[in-house]
Every structure is written in C-alpha cells, then in structure tokens.
Amino acid sequence: MLFPTLTFHIFFVVTFALIWLCRDNEWRKILLLVGSWIFYGAWDWRFVALLIASGLLNWAVAELILAAKQRARNGEGWPGAARFWLVTGVVANLTILGFFKYYGFFLEQLIALLHSAGWERDVPIMQVILPVGVSFFTFQGMSYQIDIYRDKTERASLLDITLLMSFFPHLVAGPIVRASHLVPQFRAIPKLTVSMAAAGLTLILWGLFKKTVIASELATNFVDPVFFDPSAHGSLDLLLGAYGYAVQIYCDFSAYSDMAVGLAALLGYRFPWNFNQPYRAATLQDFWRRWHISLSQWLRDYLYISLGGSRHGTARLYFALSMTMLLGGLWHGASWNFVIWGAIHGGVLVAERVWWSVRRDGWPKAPHWLSIFFTFHVVTLAWIFFRSAEFGDAMAYLEGMAALRGGAVTATPLMVLLMLIGLSFHFFPRDGVQRAAVWLRAVPAWRAAIICVAALVLLEAMRPDGVAPFIYYQF
User: Fold this and answer.
1) Any idea of the CA torsion for 143, 258, 212, 400, to the nearest 10 degrees?
2) Coil, helix or strand for 233?
3) Percentage above 90 pLDDT, the chain
4) Fewer CB within 10 A of the end CB, N or C, for the chain?
5) How many whole angstroms from its chain centre is CA 238?
6) What residues are annotated to the active site?
7) pLDDT of residue 394 exceeding 60
8) Where would I find the H helices in 74-121?
9) Using omega within 30 degrees of 0 as the cis cutoff, is the peptide bond preceding 175 cis?
C-alpha cells in the first residue's frame, strides 16, 4: 500500500476518523496497531506474523534485562545476566535480519568459494522473500533493548513497543523513531492542534510533489534507461544520469519521510526530521548530519561508539568510522555494491579526519562553494554504485563517463529542469515548508480543505499510471 495511491488515501481517512472518534487512549492505540497491521498486510499477510513476533521478542528481552538488573541491584543472581540477555536479544534480531536479507547473498558467495576450491556438487538455495521494512523495524527493536540496558529509556508496555515497531507512517522506510521519543507520546492523550494539522497537510503535499513530479518523472523518463544500458549513452548523458539519480533518491526518500512526519502529525504524534538539505553540506561528515538523520544517529549511538569512537586514539577512530560505514552500506542490502558505497563514504570520512589533523592554521581554506561542490560530487560518485545492480554495471557506467565519448543526449530540457529544481531545494530558506504551514493555518478551514483536495487531485492526475514504489522500500 503506497502512500501516493487512492487505496492508501481511503485507508488513512478511515483510520483518521476512527482514531479521533475513539476517546479511550488504550483503545486508540489498539486501533492504530490493527490499522498498521492491515497496512503492512497489504503487501503480504505472512509478514504481519513476523512483525508481531519481532515486537514480542524485543519486549520480552527488555523485560528479562530489567529483571536481571533489578536482581543485580538486590545482590541476587548472576551479575552478567543483563548483558547476557542483551547479547541474546541483539543476536536474535540480527539473525532475523540476516536470514531474510542476507541468506541468499552469503550462500551464493559460499557456493562460489566452494566451486573455486573444486566442489562441484549443486547446493540447493531456498528462495526467501524479503519483508518490506525489515531493516527499519529490526533496528527500532534493537535500540529499545540497548536503551533499556543503558538506562536511557523507560520501560514500555507490550502494546506500546509493538505499536512503536508497527506504526504505519514510519514502518516500511523510516524515520527510525526510538522508544524514548515515541513511547512517552503513546502514553499521553494525543491532541491535534490547528498548527499540527496545517504542518501535517503541508508536509504530505510537499512530499507528494517531490515524489510524483520530480522523483518518479526523473526515474521513469531518464535515470532508469540510462542506468539500464550505460553503453548506449554518451559521457555527457551518463554524467547527467548520475546527477539525475542524486536528485531522484533525495526527492524520493525525503518525500517519504516528509509524508511520514505529516501523517503522524495528523494522528497527534511528532516524528523527528530525517533530512536537512544534505546536498548543502561542505564536508561528508556534515552530509551525514543532514542525510537520513535517524539512521546516521542510530549508527553513531549503537555502532560507532560501541566500536570505540574517538575515545581510544586515532587508529581506533579511523577503524570505527570505516567499519560503521561498511556495515551501514551492508544494512541497505545484500550486494557488494552497497559495501563499496559504504567503503567510499568511510574512506572519505577518514581522509577528512586525516586532512584536518595535518592542516596548519595558516593554510588557506577552500571557498565554501567549492567544498559543497566537491562533497556533492563525492556523494554522487558513490550513488553510482548504490544504484547499479552489479559491480560490473557500476564500472561500465564509470568507464563510459571517463571515456569522454560522444553520443546523443537523451536528457530533455524538462529532465534538466527537474534536476535543477531538486537541487535548488537545498538552497531555499530552511523554514520554507514551515512558512507554508503557517499560511495554511491562517486560511479558513473550508478554503484549506479545497486547496488540499485540489492539490491532491492535481498531483494524482500528473501520474495517471501511478508511481513506482519508494526506493527505500527495498531496505
């Protein structure tokens, strides 16, 4: 069930009405939970069982951790019991994630290794369907366990932790909302203010615009054909294709996040922002403060710091940075291209740290615009591996760009214009959407309703054949 579809619009209107007609907060949460399972079951009902089991697992492990910590405070039981249950819970989550997401990939690598060693027998490979959003809700469950162990969040009920992991606005593509942020909101009675309603509607329409007008148009009419057969395109077309994908993935992913934040706001809940004009970054470190913020903060708090971070010397810092980005790349999918994408980011992050450590105070600094230009092109280079299906496809794409070969330019003026519009979003005033929400708030309710419905109909009419799934649905 995709956000920009009539089916979802009907689903949300019904859910919205039922939620606000219900006066009891516990029943409201139960309705939200059932609605979220219906939303998820629209892809495959079998995955709902996995979602329920994952919620039960993470709640039960957290309860065992809390009980072990209480016994330790009372001087009873094994002192390492809480850590044992934490490790057990993390391993269980990673096993679920690994089976569904990496089973086929690693088995194929093992078979290739065995064949190279002379093993000629066929090894049967079980076909495993990847549940939508499994990486997101697994990370949310793990963060709850770890935060309980670290005393950084309060105990959650089974209903609250299951709803946290299942809540449909962020279920399949984030943001990764932590228990410490959302569970306290679940406990309180939600309120829908005029400001929240205006902000929510503005974000939903803004996200729909980015998805339907820019991301889908670029993907269908330019980016997908270029990446499908790089050899059929000249170097300039390939360069424009790389720029096009950089704009497409930003508009696609940030559109989902904007709509998720907006939908949650209409239901009375506040989500954290997930993007902050990432292509405006002047360093790669700054880029990761602006891009997929919920994931970068998760990797920082639960992986980078656990690997030592900056507390144990320079070598350990570089190792932690590199390993965090490698695993962050692998989180996106079972492909060497994602590992290479992570390695590029990790390598450049380390190179930035090395440069900052050797640079002298008197040395001239690069102009700010040049730093932004360089960072954007590093990110765009890495996107080529991210987008390409295989390593060979990415290398063919890069070779085609480097060859400086001629050929017809298939990027129409409209495609170039959409790229420029998508990039220009990074240099608008940061509060542009908030200003639009303030304006909508001041409009009479009947007029605001007409404006929103008209905008929705117009955006739907621009994509009569529908829109492709969001890119991050596959992760």
Assistant:
1) -60
2) coil
3) 65
4) N
5) 26
6) 332
7) yes
8) 81-116
9) yes
Q: How many CB atoms sit inside 10 A of residue 23's CB?
A: 8
Chain-centroid distance of CA 214 in Å reads 19
Backbone angles phi, psi at 114, to 5 degrees: -65, -40
pLDDT at residue 385 greater than cutoff 80 = yes
303-311 long-range contacts, CB within 8 A, separation 24+: 303/327, 303/328
SS (HEC) of 112-138? HHHHHCCCCCCCCCCCCCCCCCHHHHH
Cα distance from N-terminal residue to C-terminal residue, the chain: 16
| Cα(70)–Cα(82) distance, integer angstroms | 9
Write out pLDDT tens, residues 72-124: 888 888 889 999 999 999 999 999 998 888 877 777 777 777 767 777 666 66
pLDDT tens digit string along 240-277? Answer: 999 999 999 999 999 999 999 999 999 999 999 999 99
What number of H helices and E strands is found in the chain? 20, 0
CA distances from 381 to 109, 340, 437, 473 (A): 26, 11, 35, 23
DSSP-derived letter for residue 188 is S
Residues 6+ apart with CB under 8 A from 259: 3, 169, 203, 204, 207, 208, 211
Answer whether 1's CB lies under 8 Å from 36's CB: no
Give the position of tokens 């950084």. 152
Compute CA 415 distance to the chain's CA centroid, rounded to the nearest angstrom. Answer: 25
Which two three-digit tokens encode residue 422? 């998508």
With tokens 């959650």, the residue in question is 156
CA angle 240/383/300 to nearest 5° reads 145
Cα 214 to Cα 220: distance, rounded to the nearest angstrom: 10
How far is C-alpha 226 from the geometric centre of its chain's CA atoms? 25
- Identity of the residue numbered 14: V
From the number of C-beta atoms within 10 Å of its C-beta (0-12, 13-18, 19+), residue 10 rates as exposed
> How many residues can be counted in the chain?
475
Give the type of residue at 341. W
Q: Is residue 298 within 8 Å of 143, Cβ to Cβ?
A: yes
Mean pLDDT, all residues of the chain? 90
pLDDT reported for residue 183? 96
Nearest residue to 343 via CA among 331, 317, 316, 325: 325
What are the extents of the domains in the chain?
24-189, 195-467
Q: Quick one: 242 exposed, middle or buried, by C-beta within 10 A (0-12, 13-18, 19+)?
A: buried
Largest distance between two CA atoms of the chain? 76
Kindly state the average pLDDT of the residues 439-444.
79
Q: Which residues contact 403 (CB under 8 A, 6 or more apart)?
A: 235
For residue 345, the one-letter residue type is: H
